[in-house]
């Protein structure tokens, strides 16, 4: 992880506004493909931080990335991961995904899952490149998983 550019830390309630801004920026680049806002753009991040394990990536006191995890009985799920557009392509997304794997592994999970929209084809390609595998698909979502190395 390139920690000289950012840090990843547990989100606090005061991060909700910055996290919302980050998510809106990250997902707004895809709005030309959709007729309405994407689900991460309508979430109350103060509630999200209170209800789920949430982390933020921060640089110069600005939230530049976010990660929301959920822990099921058999696997961990990345409910949301996003990076501000001006920080994309610099390794932060990969760092957040690696952090998610590490967090899941530290809690005893051997599998991590996520879902992305079928129209976000570059995300599907990126996850495949990072070793994720597609295990299901419906009209809207591509479901992916990755086994965590012990």
Polypeptide structure, described:
The chain is built from 4 helices and 7 strands, in the order E-H-H-E-E-E-H-E-H-E-E. The model has no long low-confidence stretch (mean pLDDT 93). The protein has 150 residues and is α+β, with helices and mostly antiparallel strands. The two termini are 19 Å apart. Helix 1 packs across helix 2 (45-51). A 7-stranded mixed beta sheet has the order 1-2-3-4-5-7-6, sandwiched between helices. The protein has helices spanning 16-28, 45-51, 92-106, 121-129, and strands at 7-10, 54-59, 62-71, 76-83, 111-117, 133-137, 141-147. Helices cover 29% and strands 31% of the residues.
Helix content estimate: 25-40%
Q: Note the main sheet.
A: 7 strands, mixed
pLDDT < 50 stretches: none
Strands, total number:
7
Task: Please state the structural category.
Answer: alpha+beta
> What is the radius of gyration?
15 Å
Order of helices and strands: EHHEEEHEHEE
Strand order of the largest sheet: 1-2-3-4-5-7-6
In DSSP terms (H or I, runs of 4 or more residues), the helix count works out at 4
Distance between the termini: 19 Å
Report the sheet-strand fraction. 25-35%
């Amino acid at each position: 992880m390139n920690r000289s550019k950012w840090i990843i830390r547990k989100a606090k309630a005061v991060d909700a506004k910055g996290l919302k801004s980050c998510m809106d920026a990250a997902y707004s680049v895809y709005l030309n493909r959709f007729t309405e806002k994407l689900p991460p753009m309508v979430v109350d991040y103060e509630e999200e931080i209170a209800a789920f394990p949430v982390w933020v990536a921060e640089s110069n006191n600005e939230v530049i990335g976010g990660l929301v995890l959920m822990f099921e009985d058999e696997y961990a799920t990345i409910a949301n991961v996003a990076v501000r557009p001006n920080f994309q392509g610099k390794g932060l997304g990969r760092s957040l995904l690696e952090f998610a794997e590490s967090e899941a592994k530290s809690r005893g999970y051997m599998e991590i899952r996520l879902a992305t929209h079928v129209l976000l084809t570059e995300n599907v390609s990126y996850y495949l490149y990072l070793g994720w595998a597609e295990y299901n698909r419906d009209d809207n979502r591509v479901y992916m998983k990755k086994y965590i190395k012990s």
